Amino acid sequence: MPDLLLNVIDNLALHQLADFHFIRPWWLLAIIPLYLFMRFVVKSEDSLSQWQDHMSDTMIYHLAIKEQQKRRLTPKKLFMLFAVLITLVMAGPTWQQQPTPFFTDESVLIIGLDVSASMNSSDVQPSRLLRAKQKVNEVLQKRGDAKTALIAFAGSAHVAMPITQDKEMIRHFLDVLDSSIMPASGKVPQSVLPAAETLLAQVKAPSSILLLTDQTNQLAVNGFKNLLTGTPHQMVVWAIGENPDSGLASSTGLSASDLSLLEELANAGNGNMVPFTHNSDDVEMVLRSLNNTLQNVDDNSLPWFDAGYLLLFLLIPLQALWFRKGWTMQW
């Protein structure tokens, strides 16, 4: 589990590092004259160099006054630090986009929840189905009023809630879903295809299918591949069950072949497979996968967050030093 958390943090850091750039990069050219000015200042301060042709180094060492040279913080050095920080502020460093009130999220999340008998297994307490419902509620809470639809499936699939922005209504229908109310027993994940296709026909932006299940088959893999290939939509598969790599899996947990086929299903749907975790790591991974589709909706219209303003807080204590007695006299 700690390794999974570290991987999540590393992936997030690498993603932000890949997006790092300057909004106004031409301001960085100001560093060139600042560097030349600093060289001139340093050279002008070296008053001993003019005596090296007339005195020995030993005599210069004993005659020179060292107090001024020992000072590490001078107005000139402070000015250069201040100028470099101001240049970075003006260049506008950034690594993430910010939402805008003029941007409307038209993407839809279609949740396909497996309510078949195998979801009543208790390898994750109290059962796979109850934990899956809890995870869905966490996703709904974090997504707010984003457009969402709910499909329940076992031996057949049925739209429990059409596309809506009322997450409380979805929660109400989610609570009552159980294998006992399904008209057909068994597990037929490909039965979700007609309902998902109907819902996707109503959307106006790249959207996601989130399938929560513990098993799949090759028919579902081929079916979702045909449905999503060549479209901007994606499928995220949430493997509900104890992961065999966690070291906690019992004989009733997910097998390696189950996970392999679920991952193949996710790849066929242009998405990724998210393994179940006992904390919220898997929820965050799902949300990031869904956000990738959202960002593809209209990336160019989202403004970049100007982080240069944060550097202004570093300039406040530097600016305060200019009020020291005699500070400006030392230039």
Automatic annotation (TrEMBL):
The chain crosses the membrane at residues 25-42, 78-95. Keywords: Membrane, Transmembrane, Transmembrane helix. The keyword RNA-binding does not apply. Residues 110-214 form the VWFA domain. The keyword Transmembrane helix applies. This is VWA domain-containing protein. It comes from Thalassotalea fonticola.
